Amino acid sequence: MGGSELFRSRFEELRTRLVALARAEPLELALTEYHVADGFSRGKFLLGDTAAVGLGLADMLVLFAQLGVEHACQHLSLAFGDTQELLLESWYNPFLADAGGDLIERPAYTVTRLFANMLLPREGELVAVKAPATSVAFAEQSQTYPLVHAAAFASADGREGSLFLLHRDLHQSLTATFDLEEGFAVVEARLWAPTRFDQDASQSAIAVVDSPFRLRGRRVQVVIPPHSVLALRVRR
Known about the structure:
alpha+beta, Immunoglobulin-like
């Protein structure tokens, strides 16, 4: 779930180069295709039917928001079952048909919709006062990244805001607090918390549920389970 950190520096460099072109209209950053694994990993990516797909996509969506990516297209497929096509991985499909013909919502769809529901037109101000971090080895390199990957958004008139958080730790819950500006209150808190990061999602959907929170003055306190996504909406 820290995989997006491998690309952060390259995206930041690309943005710097785009800005340096000094055009009258700034060039926008567009991603034509993204997902947790590409079509050429067929048969080798063993987490395609698990919650890990949704968690990985949440990680990327937060990074895109932090970088101010203007356009991003998720790689999707509407071919059900095993098509034997190299570019049609089963987890690219946002739904899966069960034995009775009913559609099962896949983690990719659940998390993307949860993110979209919290997306507002402006980037909100988010300042981390204390951010626990962890390290993991990638290709013989050590990568350090914060355990909570977060992005904030605001409405055009500033009367509404939202906060989208991915808890990247795989083992322990985390108690998080954040302070609201005067006059704001939490109006919605939604949680997607698989029982395991590799929980099988091929037989039934992993539901999004209401999340409890505590409010003391302007300070909001929430408990975020391991490998989970929390989305909150605030309003003046």
